[in-house]
Automatic annotation (TrEMBL):
Keywords: Membrane, Transmembrane, Transmembrane helix. This is Uncharacterized protein. It comes from the Bacteria. It comes from Desulfovibrio desulfuricans. The chain crosses the membrane at residues 14-34, 40-62, 97-115.
Length: 120
């Protein structure tokens, strides 16, 4: 309930991840414009920026939603403090990163199929 009051629900997560994805997409487009071997043109760069901003952000928000559902209340490890830190780091960042990577893969596939780009 407190997440919804503070605006940190699914829509708030989407907006936060969209800003992060947008910055990463802008860096990728600028890098490709100046150092890339292929030129996608203005509208191609806009399409890449839009797809790399929206789709990975939705994937990261879905990953965060799954994290909230599946995260355990307490963590028991046999690796001592190192195992505990690894488990805590995974549950803090892992599902969002996995969702972002899956969203980026979907965005690359859509750009390759719809626009004929050869992104990797």
């Amino acid at each position: 309930m407190s997440d919804e009051v503070n605006g940190a629900g699914f829509i708030g997560d989407c907006i936060r991840y969209m800003v992060i994805s947008g910055v990463l997409a802008l860096v990728a487009v600028i890098y490709n414009a100046f150092a890339g071997k292929e030129s996608y043109g203005f509208w191609g760069s806009i399409a890449i920026l839009a797809f790399y901003t929206i789709i990975p952000a939705i994937g990261a928000a879905i990953g965060n939603l799954l994290r909230k559902i599946a995260m355990p209340m307490f963590i028991v490890t046999n690796g001592g403090m190192g195992g505990l830190l690894k488990a805590k780091a995974f549950w803090a960042f892992g599902p969002q990163i996995i969702g972002w990577i899956c969203g980026a893969a979907v965005a690359i596939d859509l750009l390759n199929k719809w626009f004929g780009f050869h992104l990797r």
